[in-house]
């Protein structure tokens, strides 16, 4: 079985086009995580707060971020896919976030193969409502977990997202190559 984090390339044209491995599904409260030792997707927990993922959420292969995890990505989709699905995606924004004192930024991306998102190229192409819903989710999804606190620090453009992907690729190479 292929290890999607270690054996799959970061993308067909990273950082401009990346692969997103879906763990958590739009509209659900289940927090799935890819377990590279199995390898496969396992149920990590059910979110304690009464919120649901605003879109499909997962990680970018062969990346490692400042929080010592694969780099997180939220892919805007109309319909949920499934845990383990690989989406070819285009980074359009970076949401800067603090999770219990650790930098835990999120790449916001759109599917390359969905014409409904062809016009979304950069952060200014996201609606204020989309950004508000994403921010609200990540600021509240851990509220009922004892001792957990998150804060969205701001939004950056597509170039910042691509720069962060390159940073995560470099960290992966330094740590695991």
UniProtKB/TrEMBL annotation:
GO BP annotations, alphabetical order: phosphate-containing compound metabolic process
Residues engaged in binding Mg(2+) 2: 72
Classification via Gene3D superfamilies: Inorganic pyrophosphatase (3.90.80.10)
Cofactor(s) this protein requires: Mg(2+)
HAMAP family listed in its UniProt record: Inorganic_PPase (MF_00209)
Similarity remark: Belongs to the PPase family.
Protein's name in the database: Inorganic pyrophosphatase
Organism: Halopelagius longus
Gene that encodes it: ppa
